[in-house]
Amino acid sequence: MTQQDSEIEIALPDWLSAFAARRSIIESVEERMAFVIAAARANVQAGTGGPFAAAVFESATGRLVSLGVNLVLHANLSVLHAEIVALTLAQRALGTYDLGGTGLPRHELVSSVEPCAMCYGAVPWSGVTRLICGARSHDARRIGFDEGPQHIDWSAALGQRGIAVRHGVMRDQAAAVLEDYVRGGGRIYNARETGVDRPALPD
Ligand SMILES: [Zn+2]
What we know:
It is a single chain. This protein is of the alpha/beta class. Helices cover 38% and strands 14% of the residues. It is built from 8 helices and 5 strands. Strands 2-1-3-4-5 form a 5-stranded mixed beta sheet, with helices on both faces. The longest helix has 18 residues, at 29-46. The structure holds zinc ion. The site of zinc ion has 6 residues, from α5.
């Protein structure tokens, strides 16, 4: 194999930590979502990624633990969806892979759009006990983003694992970021829905 790096380092956009520092406690779920939607819009305006943002909060207090944005294009890494960035930063900040660990307050993930297949899978592993979604998956698909092979009833499946899901919080505002992204010529990357032409695999 070619030489492999001995560590993984991901540079975050300069503006992101300053944006996150604007708020420390956000009490209502709607205000938490509004903050996340504003971050998605800022990501587009800064040209640092797709029109998606997510944040981890302490559910009861509204303390902001981390703020992530989509960095797939910025970092050239397909897994860097906003939810993954937010969960990674939260786990780094708290020094644990389990945000639902013993002695910790309950944490929630607030995402500007419903999770794709990958991010849906990441939710139960993260330890959050609530997921708050803005725009629907349909809103992302409508502009050409691929949400992947989502579990048909992913919301109920999370519920069975003790993770409450709320849909459509400030949906119109969240969806408007998606629509403005397309209108502004934003790139729809990785849009490989079934049926799209691909080179044949070698035998
Ligand atoms: Zn995702």
